[in-house]
Amino acid sequence: MSLSKRDYYEVLGVSKDSSPEEIKKAYRKLARKYHPDVNPGDSSAEEKFKEVQEAYDALSDSEKRKKYDTFGHAGVDGTGFDPGGFGGFGDFGGGFDDIFNMFFGGRSTARQERYGPRKGADLRYDIEITLEEAAFGLETDISVPRNETCDVCGGNRAKPGTSRITCSKCGGTGQVEFVQSTPFGRFATARICDRCRGEGSIIETPCDNCNGRGTIYRTRKIDIKIPPGVDTGSQIRFREEGEAGERGGPPGDLYVYIYVKPHEIFQRHGNDLICEVPISFVQATLGDEIDIPIIDGEVTLKVPEGTQTGTIFRVRGKGMPYLRGRGRGDLHVKVKVVTPTKLTQKQRELLQEFAQGSEDYSGGSPNEKGFFSRMKDAINKRAQGG
Asked: What SS3 class is residue 226?
């Protein structure tokens, strides 16, 4: 039986050294392609879907994968046992658990736990947000494709009105004992029942809604809340919003990874913000009070006389909020004295007159329209919720 099966790695189209994440990604791609809901009435697609599901069940479990890599299909489906003799280690489909039990007796509690309730797989969702949304938090909904418990059979996999029956081969234990005669005496070993595949019961009439799988693949809208103060790389855990569990196990979790888009005015360093503001030669020389942008509006900054280009002013408490904490970082304003490119004749004469009595002349008046237009657009966009 096992000889007719394709290699599980070949089924998923991955190499033997693939990571669990690569295996999961390949499985999801193929599951979407061959899912019965996508290919109604196509028996070949349904068979391929079952083959993909079987391969993923084996390779997504670290213990099963280890046994598959060592013993092949016999290591995971219980078909490799040869009751007539040892037949080499490859014939012990259950791996070292069965070897141990053959000589020392007893059953593997690890195997029993493996076929009990199992938590569903965790999922990851990447979301891109603006700096304003990172500053003030965001409540939105996202669409997450996932396997959910079938709402018709409740994950039981049997058609409503029918029930699972106790496996006649193992008597409901999920394991079958074999006795082997050797030169050292008779030894007994417990193997996974190949009829019920270790579950102890069999479904005679599968659920029509999920085709006996117990889960349905669908895209679900999930409401999420992103707290103020998040940054690129932050992740938020939403409990039990991942894949459905198996055999009555709880769902996995959903992890939302945050990416904050670059801002046109502010640069972020931790919880502090940095921006550059142009000022004129007159403002830098004589001093002035100017309006500067902050993430939630604007404030007035006093520029003292004699300010040099590149001077940085610190405005306390006007940066980003602390994540799950009180207060905010600071805003650092770097002023840039802008040199004019066009002068009237009168301006030129006045500057020349000024230069005759000054050795540190650097004058000019800036063209500030471009910066403040962008600043006001950003503030208006924030006010309109854009």
From this structure: strand
